[in-house]
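dumping this here before i forget
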Amino acid sequence: MLRFLTLFPETLTLRFFSLLTFALYASTIPLAASQTRPSYHITPEKKWMNDPQRPFFLGDEWHLYYLYNSNWDASNPGAGGTEWYHITSTDMVSWTRRGVAIEKYKPNPPSGKILGDIETGSAVVDTENTAGFGKNTVVARAAVRSD
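structure:
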């Protein structure tokens, strides 16, 4: 028992100084531009994203679409609707924001009815012009919820 009491303060002191040394060393390491942003994951600049679609390769870039809500409000999570956002990459690590590809639906002015909110779907490259929009055209199919 006496031996434990004499060793404990030394062990505690050693742990404390080891932790302090590590903390001082860590404080000299430069921090990333943004500590809260993932380095290898796709994230929007603001608000939220979900439901990334299957990426496809066209030209010399990877293309990816995902659902995005640019005016999401935490106090009313179901409001605002979603749009499809488009990003591209040559290495699937660094991404370039291309903007909104399919806008969120807005009320139809003559009737005042909401046509529906764009939801999940997929996009493919039509290499044989089977849809009639031209060879190598990106064709998107989106699910729409209507009121």
